[in-house]
Design brief:
It holds the Pfam family DUF218. The chain has eleven helices and seven strands. The protein has 342 residues and is α/β, with parallel strands linked by helices. Strand 6, helix 9 and strand 7 form a beta-alpha-beta unit. The longest helix is centred in the middle third of the chain and has 33 residues.
Amino acid sequence: MNPMIGIALLYAPVLLFGGLFIYSLWREPRQFRNSIYLSLFLICLATNLLMGFGQEWMILPILAAITICPIIVIVFLGINSIVVARHEGLSRTTMLPALLAFAIVLFFIAFPLLTAMHAPRALVSIAGLIVLEGIWFFFTFTALLAYSWIYRLLPKRRRYDYIIIHGAGLQGTEPTPLLKGRIDKAVRLWKRQQGYGKFIASGGQGADEQISEAEAMNRYLQQQCKVPAEAILLEDRSTTTMENLEFSKSLITEHSGGHDYRCALVTSDYHVFRAAEYAHMLHLKADGVGSHTKSYYWPTAFIREFVAISIDHRWPYIVIACIWLISLLLQTFGPALSQFMH
């Protein structure tokens, strides 16, 4: 084979996934697939560079990293879960890092352990399914973690007509520190625009809340941030992120009079990508803008976001399960079917 053709074939996946990433990013940055294209591009590029220019000894640190990194991650997640529980109290949410650490352990030991114990074939097969699903889970987790940071760093120096602030719970009638961070970030953005644009305080009233989150934000904006009342619109019906955006879009449509507009979605930094992706689904012209989150809470918050995004993009898990089931059926009934055919 011509060496040039060999090189072209070797780098074809790199060019393919790199091209897909650039095109998809240019078309729409707010898409989950961008994280997949970017990760596949980096994996193919790193593999080709290692094969083309690496030395045999370079395999050793890579194998060491593959062995040690999961252990470090498991220990970190366990400690983080304890720290978050001390600050925020024990709950299903604060236990997410510990649950992920357990999933990593299960991912690595389930299949070899059951095989070594000569477990029933059905259990070994189920463990194999766990491994297959786990590979996709951890791959997409890493991909989204990397891309969500990139998305937050993308230039967004626009002049926004509307600034949507996503609710985040109340302490009595006052915004929580998390919500205050979002409001303050939105106000800084508004001041950078020299007071141009309107705020949309978006958040309904929970069963345990005295007033709506929108009203609490309204009071904080006027009393603490000195924002005039005419610059604030209230969306006080929503209970989820999707409803935040749906109802805010209806409010914007009502007040924009059909004119073209651009808005910013101000939420916590860990929540930016999912909010922006939902906005894309609703055809809402918006950019995600993140406010700071305490470092100890970031892993818990991102895991929760990833689970929500994985549920929205669950079809790969379904496809993997279907392939596994078909393979299992062929292994179980294939010999009998072959004998019957002959």
